[in-house]
Amino acid sequence: MEIAMSRWLLFSFFSLIVQAQDETNCGLPANSSFYNDLNTNIKYISDADYIKTGKSKSVASEFLTYKRPQWTLRSFPQEIRNCYNISAIKDTKYLIRAIFLYGNYDGLNKTPQFDLYLGNTRWTRVDDSYYTEMIHTPSTNKLQICLINVGQGTPFISSLEFRELPYLSYFTLYSLYLYGRYDMGSITNEQYRYPDDIYDRAWEAYNDDDYAKLSTSDSVDGDGSNRYQPAPIVMKTAATPKKGSKYLNFTWYSANDNDKFYAYMYFAELEKLQSNQFRGFNITHNGDYWDGPIIPQYLSTTKSYDFVSTIQPASTHQFSLFPIENSTLPPIMNALEIYVEMQISELESYNGDVDAIINVRSTYGIIKNWEGDPCVPRAYPWSGLSCSSDLVPRIISLNLSSSGLKGEISLYIFSLPMLQTLDLSNNSLTGEVPKFLSQLLYLKNVKLENNNLSGSLPPDLIKKKMNGSLTLSVDANPNLCTLESCTKMTPEQKKSNNNFIIPVVATVGGLLAFLIIVAFIYWIIKSNKKQQGKGVALPVDPGSFLEKRRQQFTNAEVVLMTNNFERILGKGGFWMVYYGVLDDSQVAVKMISPSAVQGYHQFQAEVTILMRVHHRNLTNLVGYMNDEGHLGLIYEYMAKGNLAEHLSEKSSSILSWEVRLRIAIDAAQGLEYLHHGCKPPVMSLGTVLMLIVQLTFV
């Protein structure tokens, strides 16, 4: 007998399943209602929630004779890599099955070839309509399975399936790639899966001209005592040599001489032997003793397994089962599994880089196939990214040229500290060139040309360009003042500059007058305090929401609070403010870049100051976050805006002098409280300005 790799198998399950949950029919449109399989009553849903790329397709009409889950697939005509991201349970043993039924869905009548990756490891080359299986125990709570376009047709997939296996079954140091699983001596020539096999292993019927068949109608392994639990219906048949032969032989061939194989053989006596009958046999591999003697038990499974290491170059593996000396009956075999040992690399990118690049994706609404780990598989990172070859990969290059980007240069780019090359050219970016670009220590090449950037280049960035440590391209930004244009201005530019300076001076003058009024009122309040012997601090209600909730939060709590940072209220050079809800109350969450804070101790000192400020005219702090580099402050939400917004020239509201005077008085009272109502007084200029500018506008 020769065992060939028969890969053309038709299945009733086309799904993505973890822990016996609802199965996901790959390619089923997102708006489709669920349905239940007629044979298993298993519920099927669309896979649209598990992957954002690819297109739903249907097989050709002649394939609609197959069961319903086989009618659709997901095709990936765009990008080189497309990945499924799957939640799993760490240290749990899974049988992972990927199924591919081409079904001439594209009318080309040509089956494509592409690669399938598990983590950073190439699982197999898909070159025909077939299924492939892996027994794998993940070391983390997630798995990534990618389809890679190798230039020989469009990748597609019909299903991904996960079945949990007993931890002590198939016990090896590494993962196992299925070579074949066979129902020996089958009398039906059918394939058996769930519910016949409780772990949904697929058993393929196998017969050979040199074999005779044995079978029984009795139950085998009725007590389920064998932890491998091969399908009972498979164990009810067996192959044995035809009369005149004592040897039961089978052979398989290895494509790689260095492959290490695992063979799992299952035996159960199906005949009620007489007292003068006995069945026992040994097993050899390529002529060398492998196992035995094997003495099958009546209607009970005996398992034999070992690994076959091809130390010498060899591509043929021949097994022979032959009777031992006192055996009166020939050998039998009921079932056989053959696996190839595979070392799966579960490489993962640095978590901080992953968070940063996902935030960049969200900021700009990037619709590329940015799914899964950005740097894994190593050979196929996200399009536009390059990663280091470190043990933990880091993002070192980001190319978003001609990607339709709008808005300002994202602050999240600053959270990619190993970045060496940044290309944001040929987009519609606005705003100023951020200072943080000069603080990325490894950044050597920046391309910002052909955008709508404005303002001046940061001085430190100019210095790096001048000393040759940075290559900077900023051409074709009409409103950006580069080094040369700042020093040599045309008459038209000077006129334009004057048009800009005049309103700015007017605005600054108005603000200066406002501050003089505040200072005058503050002097009056201070004088009254000395006369009356008491301050004017107006503390918040001790029983208020704030007083109850002032605390430190974790990053996970802030993510939940802001619904994953869904709504942006405002942003600056080193911070962004998000809308949030905490205990049914509205809050504003200010996320701060680590570079904006001079270390952990200063941040804690600032928080300590803010946490003891209790005044109705000053911004009230709900809490703060300092969680593994994530820094943030949580304030009460000001539905009508803050003082800075209402005094801004962009504000559409016109303030009367009465309102302006009330603002000045309230600000002065807040300032007086900080200097005299707090013990010790708050004298930090940055903190004072922040609290005053954030004055609630009511």
SSE topology sketch:
Blueprint: E1 23-25, E2 35-36, E3 43-46, E4 55-58, E5 72-75, E6 81-87, E7 94-100, E8 113-118, E9 121-126, E10 130-136, E11 142-152, E12 156-157, E13 159-164, E14 175-184, E15 204-206, E16 211-215, H1 232-235, E17 237-241, E18 248-253, E19 260-267, E20 281-285, E21 288-294, E22 302-309, E23 316-323, E24 335-342, H2 351-364, E25 385-387, E26 395-399, E27 406-407, E28 421-423, E29 428-429, E30 445-447, E31 454-456, H3 459-466, E32 471-473, E33 479-481, H4 483-487, H5 491-532, H6 545-549, E34 551-553, H7 555-561, E35 568-571, E36 575-582, E37 585-592, H8 599-611, E38 621-627, E39 630-636, H9 643-647, H10 657-677, H11 685-693
Parallel strand pairs: 1-3, 14-15, 26-28, 27-29, 28-30, 30-32, 31-33, 34-38
Antiparallel strand pairs: 2-3, 4-5, 5-12, 6-11, 7-10, 7-13, 8-9, 8-11, 10-14, 14-24, 16-17, 18-23, 19-22, 19-24, 20-21, 20-23, 25-26, 35-36, 36-37, 37-39, 38-39
Helix pairs in contact: 5-10
